[in-house]
Amino acid sequence: MADPQQLRGVVLTEDKRSERFFRHLITCLGYDKRNFRFLTAPSGIGSAEAWVLKRYPEEVQVIRSKNFQRSLCLIAVRDGDSEGVSLRKQQMDDALTEANKTPRAENERIALPVPTWSIENWLLYLLKEPNVNEERQVHRQDLSWKQAFARLYGESNEAEAEALRGAARAWSDVQSMDLPSLVDGRREIARLSLG
Q1: Does pLDDT of 70 surpass 90?
Q2: Extended strands (E) in 20-119
C-alpha cells in the first residue's frame, strides 16, 4: 500500500468545481494536496471534456516514463454527460491506443472517475440531498444538476466551499450507495493506494 504522504501526481479536471472537490477529497483521504498538480480545462476555449481527453495520454506517458518512482499517480476526471461511465472510460483507452500507448493496466495508479451527469450529481448525493440520480435533470424540475447545486450551495464562495468539504468528508463515510457512477468512482480512486 502506498504511503499517503508520499503519493504525488496530477489531477486533470474539466472545470473548477471538480478541481476544488478533488482538492478537498485528496486531503480527506490522507494525501498531501501540495504533492499534486491540478490541471483544469481553460474555460471558454473549446470542449472541456475533449481537453481532458487530449491531455490524458501525455500525462500517462509522464507517469510511465518515471515508473521507477513508485509513488506517482494520475486522476483524470471527465463528466459522464449522456455518454456514461463505460463509454467515457473506453474513450480514454482509445486515446491511449491512438497515441500508440497501451491501455492502462490493473496495477497502474491511474484513476478515471466519471461523475454522471456531472460532479454536481455526486456532490448532491454525498450531501444527502433527496432523489439524486443520474438522469439529465432533477426529478420534477426543469433544472440541471449544476443548476440545482448552484441554487442550494452557490450563494457565496464560502457556502460552496463548505459544501465541497462536506461532500469530500462524506466520500468514505457513505456505506450504501446506489449512484452507479459514484460507486465506480470510489473504486477508481481506490487505485491510488495500489502497490
Answers
A1: no
A2: 36-40, 72-76, 110-111
